Amino acid sequence: MISELIVPVLWLGGMAIVFGAILGYASKVFAVEKDPKVPLILDVLPGANCGGCGFPGCEAFAVAVAAGSAKVDSCPVGGASTAEKIGEIMGVDAGGSERMIARVICQGTSSNCSNKFEYYGVRDCKEAVIAQGGHKSCNYGCLGFGTCERVCPFDAIHVTEDGIAKVDPDKCTACGKCIEACPKLVIDLVPASKGVHVDCNSKDKGKEVKSNCKVGCIGCKACVKNCPEETIGFEDNLAKIHYDKCTQCMVCVEKCPTNAITAEMIQTKQKVS
Which residues participate in [4Fe-4S] cluster 2 binding (predicted)? Predict the structure, then answer.
């Protein structure tokens, strides 16, 4: 009886040893070597896993950077300081990349923009847009139901009492979640150091814009004609500032008859070492 049990046990034990040896050999032959830079890059990343870099998470981004398929300054949350650290690990110059922040390109508050009808449905922009493109008279404006606010992982955007979303520049990391969530495509990334903006998203002609909103761009081109640096373009009935050339001289702000171009004082924060 015992001998009948010993033989199968020996067979199974022998097979286990053989297969174990095969697996051990295969693990060495077919092993995928991990780049030692990956854990180093991961250590300096903020670990938000927001996807703002274009990759599913921080680890995927670190692997891509180590492989040379992603730029060292692609992490919007970490910003310039993280880019510099990654650059040191990779042995490359991170460059002076400009910090970007999200901005709601619209001033269509409840007092500035009229409504086509009263909306009583679900308080969600993606739902509201189904009904005739939304309740706002301007088909390009912020609907103000906070879809962007709910997807922001950094609590950086909120709908104000006047019915329009506003971004907190100090909290914004330019992860792009709000941009993806907005059905009106009214949110864009702008340089954090720039304070002059065309805060209108409408592509309608001037007469229609004027009937819909008090502060919309009517396409008069006064800003284009008067900009001393020639940094303002005009496309789809809408003025557009080329930030790389803008000196923030404020001439366009003064010349805009509808106040569609706004100006903000930008305070540069310095780190104390």
Answer: 138, 142, 148, 182
Per-residue pLDDT tens over the stretch 60-118:
989 998 888 888 888 888 888 888 888 889 888 776 667 889 999 999 999 999 999 99
Is 249 annotated to bind a ligand? Reply is no
| Residue 178 annotated in ligand binding | yes
Is 175 labeled as ligand-binding?
Answer: yes
Annotated binding residue at 256?
A: no
138 is in an annotated binding site: yes
| In the chain, ranges of CATH 3.30.70.20 domains | 100-263
What is the assigned CATH class of domain 36-90?
mainly alpha
Q: How far apart are CA 169 and CA 102, in angstroms?
A: 8
Q: Residue 125, annotated ligand binder?
A: no
Q: Is the pTM of this model over 0.90?
A: no
Strands 238-241 and 232-235: what pairing?
antiparallel
* Residues ≥6 apart with Cβ < 8 Å to 191: 98, 99, 100, 101, 243
Q: Is position 246 annotated in a ligand binding site?
A: no
Residue 75 marked as a ligand binder = yes
